[in-house]
């Protein structure tokens, strides 16, 4: 359980959600707030969920196997390390 809440802003959707550690990933948080991020494997393998990280930092509790383009991240396996802004 994280002891810090972060503000997660989804730019295209215009949705801001609070990360309070109760979701497994940023993808789960997005889904809980009706933000549509495509996904398939949900395990960091196929890049289907790959999204732009406009601002802030994320980390991966377990490092994904897929390569991610500079400036992007994999919401299905990522958690925030700061307030972030996502291009979704
Ligand atoms: S859904 Fe496959 S890498 Fe995220």
Using the coordinates above, name the CATH class: Alpha Beta
What name is given to the CATH topology? Ubiquitin-like (UB roll)
Number of strands: 7
| Number of helices, where a helix is a run of at least 4 consecutive DSSP H or I residues | 1
Residue stretches low in confidence (pLDDT < 50, at least 5 long) are none
Order of helices and strands: EEHEEEEE
Q: Rg from C-alpha positions? A: 12 Å
Overall geometry: globular
Helix content: under 10%
The largest sheet, given as strand count, sense and whether it forms a barrel, is: 5 strands, mixed
From the 3D coordinates, which CATH architecture would you assign? Roll
Describe the structure.
The chain is mainly beta and 88 residues long. It has one domain: Beta-grasp domain (Ubiquitin-like (UB roll), Roll). It is 8% helix and 28% strand. It contains one helix and seven strands, in the order ββαβββββ. It has one helix at residues 26-32, and strands at residues 6-10, 15-19, 51-55, 58-59, 72-73, 79-80, 84-87. The strands form two sheets. The chain has a five-stranded mixed sheet with strand order 2-1-7-3-5, with helices on one face. The chain has a two-stranded antiparallel sheet with strand order 4-6. It is globular. The model has no long low-confidence stretch (mean pLDDT 96). FE2/S2 (inorganic) cluster is lined by residues 39-42, 44-49, 66, 74, 76.
């Amino acid at each position: 359980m994280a002891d810090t809440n972060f503000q997660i802003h989804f730019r295209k959707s215009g949705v801001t959600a609070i990360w309070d550690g109760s979701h497994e990933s940023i993808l789960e948080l997005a889904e809980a707030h009706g933000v549509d991020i495509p996904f398939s494997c949900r395990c960091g393998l196929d890049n289907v969920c790959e999204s732009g990280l406009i601002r802030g930092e994320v980390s991966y509790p377990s490092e994904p196997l897929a390569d991610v383009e500079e400036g992007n991240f994999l919401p299905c396996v990522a958690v925030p390390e700061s307030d972030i802004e996502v291009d979704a």
